[in-house]
Amino acid sequence: MKTIHVVAAIIKDGNKIFATQRGYGEFKDGWEFPGGKVEPDETSRQAIVREIKEELDTTIQVEEYFDTVEYDYPNFHLSMECFICTILEGNLTLLEHESAKWLTKDTLDLVDWLPADLGLIAKLKEIL
Predict the structure, then answer these.
(1) What radius of gyration do the chain's Cα atoms show?
(2) By Cβ atoms counted within 10 A, which residue in 22, 38, 68, 128 is the most buried?
(3) 30 φ, ψ to 5°?
């Protein structure tokens, strides 16, 4: 099975976390933490900064590593490195997603998370 290595930004502002809804592809309408594939010539931290700039026209700062999710989808294995990030500059403009929300500990369960992202929710509730 093919492995896809991606990074995800858990963008935090106080006690809120930023979540996005996919606007395209096989998992359209599912909720996720924004991010994308790591290119061969970059580190995971460089990849997440680039992806957020491309997807949300926002410059972020990577604060800390949070977790790595290993998840088997039917057609591929996903290895997703997740980082806690904060906004340095920009307004989180949706360039690829159809919707977005700021969620709190009490509202994290109110969106339909993609399976790989769902595994992060319990751990996130501990830090919010």
Answers:
(1) 13
(2) 38
(3) -75, 150
Please tell me the distance from the alpha carbon of residue 80 to that of residue 99, in angstroms, as a whole number. 21
Paired tokens of 24: 């395209």
> pLDDT for 35-93, tens place per residue?
999 999 999 999 999 999 999 999 999 999 999 999 999 999 999 999 999 999 999 99
How does DSSP assign 54-77, residue by residue?
HHHS-EEEEEEEEEEEEEE-SS-E
**CA gap 90, 33 in Å, rounded:** 17
What is this structure's pTM?
Answer: 0.95
Which of 31, 30, 42 has its CA nearest to residue 6? 42
| Nearest-angstrom CA–CA distance, 120 and 43 | 22
